[in-house]
């Protein structure tokens, strides 16, 4: 069995072979299979015909597989993140990037020769949301940027490409938990959008610290925004501070491989126990991972594994407080609120820092 660099050991052969047969996505970014009869290595989710168990070798990274003389599969593209191995996803993501303001519909998908249900399943599998939901978020981003600049509601609505003001308000309300006009009052905390290679993020900050950083498509984002708003007496509006600029610059350096640590001041809104867990997360170096049990031991609470897991799940400052560095005790990628596909990519990025 091959070992991963700075990663936990792979599970046993039978577990990995069962995962290969089931095309289990839980092992994306954690294990690859090399087929000795073909000299090719694949993701465990590869749709190709499955090899016999005695013809399988297991690797924790593409680098290890290539060092052993295996070539990457042309069907599942194991050198890239899992979503990039799906030609349907690659095609539609490129089209969305070219036309972010277009009001995409199922009719558009049919015109491109795609079955909407197939598209929906593929995007749900990789991103936890449908293509049309991603397209709506991209349009909402335009409207939010317009409102931040002080535009009228109708201007923001048109920039977001919504048919009606009510449609825009509904989408905005789903995101922020209240109507757009309520975020144009004088506020102590300001919310703005930050683009990253893994999708848009909402950052909320004052002049001193970052209070929230979440991917725009996280299902719990509206609830997190409502909780933060309640915590500060509703003083959350739209705008930008120097902390937003610092966060954006730090994220750009991180994704470019120039900054292993996101050195941004944060204000943690949680119980003393939650804050203790979140501080422990910040102490995990980039390129390393911990299990929930290891994290609990770090804070001298070895029996509080479930409480640690809950605190990890309620983190509202993604990446800066790196909850993505916590994995299952068996080395698999466990749940990540930002999507397992993002967790896979983040861990792959941080291997370069190890």
In words, what does this structure look like?
The chain is an alpha/beta fold and 354 residues long. The chain has three domains: 13-80, 3-Layer(aba) Sandwich (DNA Methylphosphotriester Repair Domain), CATH 3.40.10; 82-176, Arc Repressor Mutant, subunit A (Orthogonal Bundle); 185-354, Winged helix-like DNA-binding domain superfamily/Winged helix DNA-binding domain (Arc Repressor Mutant, subunit A), CATH 1.10.10.10. It is 42% helix and 11% strand. It has helices at 13-22, 62-67, 87-98, 106-111, 116-127, 131-148, 153-159, 165-176, 221-231, 242-255, 272-282, 292-298, 305-313, 340-351, and strands at 32-35, 40-43, 56-59, 71-72, 189-194, 201-205, 210-215, 236-238, 290-291, 326-327. A four-stranded mixed sheet has the order 3-1-2-4. A hairpin with a 4-residue loop joins strand 1 (32-35) and strand 2 (40-43). Helix 6 (131-148) runs antiparallel to helix 7. Residues 1-8 have low confidence and may be disordered.
Search tags:
single chain; 354 residues; alpha/beta; DNA Methylphosphotriester Repair Domain; Arc Repressor Mutant, subunit A; 3 domains; 4-stranded mixed sheet; 14 helices; 10 strands; globular; disordered N terminus; Trifunctional transcriptional activator/DNA repair protein Ada/methylated-DNA--[protein]-cysteine S-methyltransferase; activator; methyltransferase
Topology (elements, then pairings):
Layout: H1 13-22, E1 32-35, E2 40-43, E3 56-59, H2 62-67, E4 71-72, H3 87-98, H4 106-111, H5 116-127, H6 131-148, H7 153-159, H8 165-176, E5 189-194, E6 201-205, E7 210-215, H9 221-231, E8 236-238, H10 242-255, H11 272-282, E9 290-291, H12 292-298, H13 305-313, E10 326-327, H14 340-351
Parallel strand pairs: 2-4, 5-8, 9-10
Antiparallel strand pairs: 1-2, 1-3, 5-6, 6-7
Helix pairs in contact: 6-7, 8-9, 12-13
């Amino acid at each position: 069995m091959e070992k991963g660099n700075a990663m936990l050991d792979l599970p046993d052969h039978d577990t990995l072979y069962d995962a290969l047969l089931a095309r289990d996505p839980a092992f994306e970014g954690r294990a690859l299979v090399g087929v000795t009869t073909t000299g090719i290595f694949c993701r465990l989710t590869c749709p190709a015909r499955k090899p016999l168990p005695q013809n399988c070798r297991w690797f924790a990274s593409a680098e290890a597989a290539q060092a052993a003389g295996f070539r990457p599969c042309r069907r599942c593209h194991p050198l890239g993140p899992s979503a990039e191995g799906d030609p349907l996803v690659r095609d539609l993501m490129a089209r969305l990037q070219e036309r972010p303001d277009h009001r995409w519909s199922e009719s558009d998908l049919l015109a491109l020769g795609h079955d909407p249900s197939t598209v929906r399943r593929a995007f749900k599998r990789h991103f936890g949301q449908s293509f049309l939901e991603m397209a709506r978020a991209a349009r909402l981003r335009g409207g939010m940027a317009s409102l931040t600049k002080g535009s009228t509601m109708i201007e923001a609505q048109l920039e977001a490409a919504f048919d009606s003001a009510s449609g825009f308000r509904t989408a905005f309300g789903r995101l922020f938990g209240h109507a757009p006009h309520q975020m144009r009052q004088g506020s102590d905390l300001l919310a703005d959008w930050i683009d990253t290679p893994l999708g848009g993020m909402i950052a909320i900050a004052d002049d001193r610290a970052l209070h929230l950083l979440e991917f725009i498509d996280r299902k719990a984002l509206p609830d997190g925004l409502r909780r933060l708003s309640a915590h500060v007496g509703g003083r959350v509006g739209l705008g930008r501070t120097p902390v937003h600029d610092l966060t954006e610059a730090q994220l750009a350096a991180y994704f470019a491989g120039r900054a292993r640590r996101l050195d941004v001041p944060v204000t943690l809104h949680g119980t003393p126990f939650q804050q203790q867990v979140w501080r422990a997360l910040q102490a995990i170096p980039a390129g390393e991972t911990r299990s929930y049990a290891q994290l609990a031991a770090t804070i001298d609470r070895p029996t509080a594994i479930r409480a640690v897991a809950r605190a990890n799940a309620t983190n509202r400052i993604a990446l800066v407080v790196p909850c993505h560095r916590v994995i299952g005790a068996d080395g698999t990628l466990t749940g990540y609120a930002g999507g397992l596909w993002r967790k896979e990519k983040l861990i792959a990025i941080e291997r370069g820092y190890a």
